[in-house]
Design brief:
With about 90 residues, this protein is α+β, with helices and mostly antiparallel strands. The chain is about 50% helix and about 20% strand.
């Protein structure tokens, strides 16, 4: 997942603190502002505040996925019945 400034703000963290985090961990702040950063780069720092941002980012991603998981649909065509399991 790509982490953006929106996720930092959702975690109730400020941009100046996030900027210091990037500098401290050798990450490119300007690139992050333009296109975000992969969550693995943040998690690999082991920094609790960075990991918190990633944790806050995930609920939004999960909700954006389709909700048709483990749904069963039965379709009948003439005398043939097909059972489709949507994942």
């Amino acid at each position: 997942m790509i982490i953006t400034m929106r996720h930092v703000r959702a975690a109730k963290m400020c941009s100046s603190g996030a900027r210091r985090f990037f500098i401290r961990n050798g990450l490119d702040w300007q690139s992050f502002l333009k296109k975000g950063i992969d969550e693995e780069a943040i998690v690999s720092t082991g920094d609790a505040m960075g990991i918190r941002v990633v944790e806050v980012a995930w609920p939004g991603a999960v909700r954006s996925k389709p909700l048709a998981i483990n749904t069963t649909l039965v379709c009948t065509w003439g005398s043939v019945t097909d059972l489709l399991i949507l994942c």
